[in-house]
Amino acid sequence: MSIRRDPVPPSPGASEPRARDGRPGHEPARPLLPSPVRELREPAFERYGVRLLLKRDDLIHPDIPGNKWRKLAPVLDTADGRTVVTFGGAWSNHLRATAAAGRLLGFPTVGVVRGEELAGRPLNASLARCRADGMRLAFVSRARYRRKDDPAVRDELVAEAAGAGQAVRVVPEGGSDAAAVRACAVLGGELAALREDAPVAGVACGTGGTLAGLAAGLAPEQRAVGVAVLKGGFLGAEVAAHQRAAFGGQRGRWSVEDGFHHGGYARSSPELERFATAFEQRHGLPVERAYVAKLLHGLAALAADGRFRRGTAVAAVVTGPPFPRA
Ligand SMILES: *Cc1c(COP(=O)(O)O)cnc(C)c1O
User: Fold this and answer.
1) Helix H segments across 248-284?
2) Which residue has the least CA distance to atom 3 on ligand 1?
3) β-bridge pairing 168-170 and 83-88
4) Quick one: which of 60, 289, 296, 322 could link to 69 by a disulfide (CB 3.0–4.6 Å)?
5) Nearest-10 crossing angle of helices 235-247, 209-217
6) What is the pLDDT of residues 76-87, one digit of tens each?
């Protein structure tokens, strides 16, 4: 049993010069892996006899946090100086992580950004960070962006954004290709070390790639619960498709909860906001709103519904910090 109940260690790089300060040419801070686990005394769970463990993936790396580190690791190993081209919305954590990785490891990055109209406006904080990290941004209409998974459309977008004839490594939106999903099985393996305490692991789902990998790495007696942050009820099928692509078939026990999206991606509700604010105040821990708040709120609701055995713990994966950091 390897739960650390002592204070969470400072994030990697905190005591050394931050790479951002010394750009370019600084060594990236070494990732904090396996990520630490911390138990919280959280009344929203304790009331129902359930304990809450936080798997602090948000501490893995200061600039490439959470599941973005896990998913990008195979890309970083194989970019070979090629231009990495990827896709995302105006506040995409994945675009920021990719841009930071390019700066730290010395490969060019191009971001294809959803929303033509953004091209004529000042950049928001997230896109400004991407550009400061050297990412070239290409803004495309929502209609074209929607068709980016059609290979012909994708090739066109990549050629336009990166320049024709460039050697490119294309990474899908959210970073969830088969190699990334397999890399997330390592997260499941880390959670398998908690099997005696925590029969259930919870994670928020955007593309579902992290859940697909995590579930594959758990111990056989464990199961994974995904909380969908998007509306539409399609994430279960996506997770199954990710597992087929990465492993050739279904792996591990998992399910997706579709009732906790609070209106859809980046939407919220007064109830969610109250829950997240109270949680932050109780624990002094800033809670990322698009994913982590919905996960914690969803798991608390499931605990209230008697869906976790009394006396056991749920291990919730904190997949990333808020941006900008509090
Ligand atoms: C990207 C992201 C997710 C979603 O991960 P998927 O693998 O796409 O499901 C969850 N949490 C945070 C904080 C993220 O940045």
Assistant:
1) 270-283
2) 206
3) parallel
4) 60
5) 60
6) 788 888 999 999
31 lines ligand 1 (CB under 6 A): no
Q: Is 258 in the pocket of ligand 1 (CB under 6 A)?
A: no
Contact (CB, 8 A) for 37 and 4: yes
Distance 66 CA to ligand 1 centre (A): 8
Gap between the Cα atoms of 289 and 275, Å rounded: 11
Q: Is the CB of 208 under 6 A from ligand 1?
A: yes
The residue contributing the CA closest to ligand 1 atom 13 is 320
Output the CA 164–ligand 1 centroid distance in Å.
31
192 vs 182: CA distance, rounded Å: 16
Look at ligand 1, atom 4, and give the residue with the nearest C-alpha: 206
| pLDDT tens digits along 49-61 | 999 999 999 999 9
Q: Which token pair is 133? A: 């990290």
Where do the domains of the chain lie, and which CATH numbers do they carry?
37-66+177-317 (3.40.50.1100), 83-166 (3.40.50.1100)
Q: According to the model, what pLDDT value does residue 14 have?
A: 35
